[in-house]
C-alpha cells in the first residue's frame, strides 16, 4: 500500500511539474503578447503624431497653393492690362508715324511749290 501511495505521489509530482511548466510557458507567452501590444500602442502613437504632422503640412501647402493661385491671377490681370496698354501705344506710334509721313509729304510739296515759284518769278531784287 505504501508503494501504491508513493507511486501516486510520484505521479502527482510529475503532473505538478507538467502543470508548472505549462503555467510558466503560458506566463511567458502572455508577457510576450503583452510586450507586443505595448509596442503596437507605441507605434500607433508615433503614427498618429506623424499623421497629424502630415495633415498640418497638407493644410499649410493648400494655403500656400491658394495664395500662389491668387497671386498668379493678379499677375495675369496685370499682364492683360499691360498688353492692352502696349497695343494702344503701338497704335499711337503707328498713327504718329503716319502723321510724320503726311507732314513730310506736305513739306516736300510745299518746298517744291516754293521752288517752282522762285524759278517762275526769279530771285527777288534788292531795293535800296
Jot down its keywords.
mainly alpha; 128 residues; rod-shaped
What does this structure look like?
There is one protein chain. The chain is mainly α and 128 residues long. Helices cover 94% and strands 0% of the residues. It contains one helix and no strands. The protein has one helix at 2-121. The chain is rod-shaped, with a radius of gyration of 54 Å. The model has no long low-confidence stretch (mean pLDDT 92).
Brief overview:
The protein is mainly alpha-helical. The chain is built from one helix and no strands.
Molecular shape: rod-shaped
Tally of contiguous helical segments: 1
* CA distance, first residue to last residue: 183 Å
Rg (CA only): 54 Å
Order of helices and strands: H
Structural class comes to mainly alpha
In total, how many beta strands? Answer: 0
Main sheet overview: none
Average pLDDT confidence is 92
Q: Give unreliable regions as ranges.
A: none
Q: What's the helical proportion of residues?
A: over 70%
Strand content: under 5%
Amino acid at each position: 500500500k505504501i508503494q501504491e501511495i508513493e507511486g501516486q505521489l510520484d505521479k502527482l509530482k510529475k503532473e505538478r511539474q507538467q502543470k508548472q511548466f505549462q503555467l510558466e510557458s503560458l506566463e511567458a507567452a502572455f508577457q510576450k503578447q503583452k510586450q507586443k501590444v505595448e509596442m503596437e500602442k507605441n507605434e500607433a502613437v508615433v503614427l498618429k503624431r506623424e499623421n497629424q504632422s502630415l495633415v498640418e503640412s497638407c493644410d499649410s501647402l493648400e494655403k500656400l497653393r491658394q495664395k500662389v493661385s491668387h497671386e498668379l491671377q493678379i499677375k495675369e490681370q496685370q499682364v492683360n492690362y499691360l498688353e492692352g496698354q502696349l497695343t494702344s501705344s503701338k497704335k499711337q506710334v503707328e498713327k504718329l508715324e503716319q502723321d510724320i509721313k503726311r507732314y513730310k509729304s506736305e513739306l516736300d510739296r510745299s518746298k517744291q511749290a516754293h521752288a517752282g515759284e522762285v524759278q517762275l518769278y526769279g530771285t527777288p531784287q534788292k531795293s535800296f
